[in-house]
Design a protein that fits this description.
heterodimer, A: mainly beta, seven-stranded mixed β-sheet, four-stranded antiparallel β-sheet, B: three-stranded antiparallel β-sheet
Chain lengths: ~120, ~110
């Protein structure tokens, strides 16, 4: 059974750093892209970026480039998203998701999702 | 701001048919990139509902169907049930943004 297990909810102050994790199991972790998706309170889904665990190839959404760092440790089947200095506007639910496709890069969809992790940034 | 536009809400009585539109442009849906749909039940993570415009993953009831034409796509729910109350999102790829994009989301209410 494919599972993506995310680290827990976090409460942080503005300016603090944070690294969240997403551990995959039940499939060949190195061979599937992992994405991070943000959902701000009461809002829709936003794609943040993707990483290929096999070679750490990473692509960021233009909206998130420079705002977060996505990384992976394939030896422990875990992907990460990291903030160096959180802002109140980073308060959101964050999901990791596995990407699959039937016909290449442009046809990818998010087939398995983690349960999400709520990040609250408040002074 | 999403490049895929959906109606904020749709509603229907149990047993009725509702459709949700997803309107894009020539840099996404109109470039023959497939459209996928997700269901997000209240307080839960999204779930893949339709892939590649009209295909249902294993376990998804055939009450859910998808279609695509030109720069738009649609999700139809027939025989609406109370458990279908959720937010629904379309998703595709956008060549101008060089990335994956989600629709604005549609809340389905069962009256």
């Amino acid at each position: 059974e494919v599972q993506l297990v995310q680290s827990g909810a976090e409460v942080k102050k503005p300016g603090e750093s944070l690294k969240m994790s997403c551990k995959g199991s039940g499939y060949s972790f190195s061979n599937y892209w992992i994405a991070w998706v943000r959902q701000m309170p009461g809002k829709g889904l936003e794609w943040m970026g993707i990483i290929y665990p096999g070679d750490s190839d990473t692509t960021y959404s233009p909206s998130f480039q420079g705002q977060v760092t996505i990384s992976v440790d394939k030896s422990i089947n875990t992907a990460y998203v990291e903030w160096s200095s959180l802002k109140a506007s980073d308060t959101a639910m964050y999901y990791c998701a596995r990407l699959d496709d039937t016909s290449g890069y442009y046809s990818r969809y998010f087939d398995y999702w983690g349960l999400g992790a709520l990040v609250t940034v408040s002074s | 701001q999403s490049v895929l536009t959906q109606p904020p809400s749709v509603s229907g009585a149990p047993g009725q048919r509702v459709t949700i539109s997803c309107t894009g442009s020539s840099s996404n849906i109109g470039t023959h990139y497939p459209v996928h749909w997700y269901q997000q039940l209240p307080g839960t993570a999204p779930k893949l509902l339709i892939l590649d415009n009209h295909n249902r993953p294993s376990g998804v009831p055939d009450r859910f169907s998808g279609s695509k034409s030109g720069t738009s796509a649609s999700l139809a729910i027939t025989g609406l049930q109370t458990e279908d109350e959720a937010d629904y999102y379309c998703q595709s790829y956008d060549s101008s943004l060089s990335g994956y994009v989600f629709g604005t989301g549609t809340k389905v209410t069962v009256l």
